[in-house]
What does this fold into?
Amino acid sequence: MLLKLSLTGIKGRLKDYIVLFSGLIMASAIFYMFEALATNKSFVSSNSPIRMASIIFQIGSVLLGIITLVYIIYANNFLMSMRRRDYGMFMMLGAKGRKIAQLIAAETLVIGMAATLVGTVLGIGLTRIISNLLLSQMDIQVKQFSPFYLPAVIVTVVFFMVLFVMAAGVNQYQLLKTPVLQLLHNDQQPNHVSQNKLGQLVQIVLSLIFLTIGYTMLINVATYQIAGLVVALVTIVLGTYFLFNAFFGWMLRLLKGNQYIRNRGLNNFTLAQLRFRIKDYTKMLALVAMLFALALGAITVGIGYQSEIPAMAKTMAPYDVVLNQPNPQARQLAKNLTGVKATANYDVKEDAQTVYYRATQLKKNPIMAVQYSNDRAKGIKPVQLKTLQKGNVAALQAIQVPSQFSKDVKVVTDAEFSQIASGTIPIKTYRVKDFMANLSVIKKIHTQQVIANPELAKGQGALMDGSKYVNYQMANGMFSGLEFMGFFLGIAFLAMLASCLMFKILSGAASDVKRYTMLAKIGTRRSLLKQSIAKEIGVLFCLPGIVGSIHVLFGLQLFKQIMLNPYQNLWLPFTIFMILYVGYYWVTTWLYQGIVLKTVTQ
Amino acid sequence: MDTPTVVSIKDVQKTYGKPNEKQYTALKGITFDVKQGEFVGIMGASGSGKTTLLNILSTLDKPTAGQVEINGQAINGLKGNQLADFRAKEIGFMFQDFNLLENLTAYENMALPLTLQNVGGKQVQDFVTSIAKTLSIDRLLNKYPTELSGGQKQRVAAARALVHKPAILFGDEPTGALDSKSAKELLDTMAQLNEQQRVSILLVTHDPFSASYCQRILFIKDGQIGQELVRGDRPRKAFYQEILDTLGTFNH
It folds into this structure.
């Protein structure tokens, strides 16, 4: 009988349950997606040049686990906020406590288990779609990766089962401990927040000091190293917390003090709601801001590597194409290069010990070389003939094949050159405006070059082919794995944090129904009520977004060490991120409006 | 000169349920007027149709048949925003459980109907302070509802209902959640407002004591007006006795 009652209860609130259920499905799907990468050791190790990657993934895994835990707590609260009254009624009707406890456990576990299984299947599908999308969109190479990975399935299912068993236990305990009357009348109206002004001021000052210290550490990470990182982590977390605990409350009070803002429509009500919420959500919002920073940071760095790859290749080879002893196909293909800035022809002769170059040619078209200062590439500059004649001939390697690297180099006059008894090897160099735009042509040329000079394919280490294309490929192989991880991490974190925020907000909706109903009764337009909700939730989404973005802007300083320019193309990750985040905002607002405005009869 | 009519309802019927389902008729043709400055009570047992009638009068629900006019305007044709605006301008509400917003101060709660109509800040202040004085709650303006007693809360609610000078004040068991002393004080105040400021009041109640403050009482039974009592010049106590007598016979 109770089971039947319980099922009827679920049917009555089907829409709310669909929200809850789809939220849980998303959570497990995302968790699986992430685990599919993180638990796949061979993928992690074969795709990252640095051994840090597997540590990064382990840290990421733990973090995601914590967020998932928080998320399940909120989702569970949402579930309980829907069911409390029903359970209270069953108990009032005389149902035994133990029976109810069983019912709660069964309900939580059934919902949790079903969601986990569906979510894992969805996760496998999503992993396939997203990885295919990433692979096809950006010339990424990923090794050892498959959407279905058994250990990941096991980790996901076990992890969620444990969480739900825990949640069921907590629900049982809480419900049985609460008096029946309180279950029936759970109108815990949030009260106004009274705040100690001095304490608030101290916290505002503290938050600014902490953030300043943290940001300074990030900017000067080269000086402070690991210690700086640890200090930054602690101070930024504390600073963020105080920011939400005091600073934003203070700002809302300022807004409320403004006559013009206060006296328009529902502004006063919206501000009061916000003041209460921000105080109530302090930890939550601070957490969301930090996660937002991590997720956005991961995507930014991921995309950063994408633009890093050609930039990296650029610093390793001065020419886009070097035709060394080209075959006719290669010459033909070279005509297809677009935006050619400069070309040069060199004649070369070689014997067993020496490679000969013509001084006139090197004077007319000086050889180009990448200039370095402080271990950083500073553009490409011509090399003076004198430098070569003095014996600094390293620059010539740019137009050599590997077997010539170890030979002596002689720069000779035209007369001397013609006397050397061996065949002339023609070399032609190209520099184009946009390497990436010519990538497909350059790839074909390179294939022909390997056919003409088979040793190019064999060279390794110091004898490796130094052409720009090969350098590009190497960088691409190294970084696209990182890029892929950055994207995955970022999207997984974003989805989780936004869902957390969503459920936290939604679980408070039930207690707001009365207020919105009253406002409608005294003649508030429906559109105004919707606006008020949109504003309130908008601010709750905006604040951690803004704080998180600022954290990212400073956090990118860390990558200055290992990336050429982490701030390049910043708009792209920010735009992608904003679109997803705004999507979550719309869904939350829509659901919230559905919950609080549905009882208003018109 | 005739006193203008603020509420006029004519042959109002309300039927719940779809045509193919079992239908229930809550109101079976109700007709009455409330003149400006009247204090009218509606009494009836649970299920008599009081609440349905009040919901229709306050434009929260629509009648199945019949006309409702408030302050000379027919409300049958109003929709969506028009309805909301109409409520905001013409109607004041008092609820049994006060329905104050807990996160706003008494002042802010009272100012709400005015800010909804975007009344200027200075005017809001004038209106709120003047109504607060009338209801003698001008010392409580900066308190939050949780810091107020039940009686004080209902006074704030009354002030909120009257601050925008509505055509009529609807009270839905406003004394239902108050102790007898607070209830009496509130009723005295309402009667005073009615006499001195000519506020038109329609009070729905099943409490004879509350009803005895009215000038005229309509008894509803099974969706129809069964009887009407007029106080006239009698003292309140005598009227109270008559109500008790009527209830004794009316409900059976």
